[in-house]
Amino acid sequence: QVQLAESGGGLVQPGGSLRLSCAASGIILGLNTMHWYRQAPGKTREWVALIGGGGYTNYAGSVKGRFTISRDNAKNTVYLQMNSLKPEDTAVYYCNTAPDHWGQGTQVIVSS
User: Fold this and answer.
1) Residue 39 three-state SS
2) Looking at residue 30, what is its pLDDT?
3) Which residues lie below 8 Å from residue 112, measured CB to CB, with a gap of 6+?
4) Model confidence band, residue 102 (pLDDT cutoffs 50, 70, 90)
5) pLDDT for position 71
6) Cys bridge to 40: 45, 64, 84, 91, which one at CB 3.0-4.6 A?
7) In the Cβ-directed half-sphere of 49, how many Cα atoms lie within 13 Å?
8) Residue 20's closest CA among 102, 83, 86?
9) What is the model's pLDDT at position 83?
């Protein structure tokens, strides 16, 4: 049974940083493509970033240059380092892997 558990969210001021974690069980992260998505209040869920099994990464244009996705295979955990945060980054952040595995999400609020 695949389980994904996000953590690391919180309240941060604009310009600040947070690092989100997604710990996995029942799956070997290093062999799978992992994604981060987010859903802002009143909006549809949007894709943020991915890391492939070979280490390939890709980002949504809105976060490119500010967010970095990475993976620690020994800990079976994927991370999302978020820098230069903006109020529009406020959302619940979810990790995901195929075919349709989701965590419970972690709330990020960017506000002064």
Assistant:
1) strand
2) 86
3) 13, 14
4) very high
5) 96
6) 91
7) 22
8) 83
9) 98
Instruction: Give the C-alpha separation, 2 to 27, whole Å.
Output: 6
**35 CB burial (10 A radius; 0-12, 13-18, 19+):** buried
DSSP for 49-93 reads EEE-TTS-EEE-TTTTTTEEEEEETTTTEEEEEE-S--GGG-EEE
Say which residue the tokens 């604009």 belong to: 14
DSSP designation for 30: G
* Token pair recorded at residue 102: 């989701």
Distinct helix (H) and strand (E) counts, the chain: 0, 11
Query: Look-up: residue for tokens 């049974």?
Result: 1
Tens digit of each residue's pLDDT (9 = 90 or more) over 27-84? 988 899 999 999 999 999 999 999 998 889 999 999 999 999 999 999 999 999 999 9
Would strands 101-102 and 91-97 be described as parallel, antiparallel, or unpaired?
Answer: antiparallel
Choose among 84, 100, 81: nearest CA to 21: 81
